[in-house]
Design brief:
41 residues; 80% helix; elongated
Amino acid sequence: MVLTAEPIVSLVAGILIFIMPNLLNYIVATYLVVIGLLGIF
């Protein structure tokens, strides 16, 4: 199982946005987390 940087970066970015949220940021964060998890698993 090889991990690429993009899913990890997306996941971290999503988590950081959840920590400092705005309405639009929640939408972006959800997208990033989903893409990150799909890329990892």
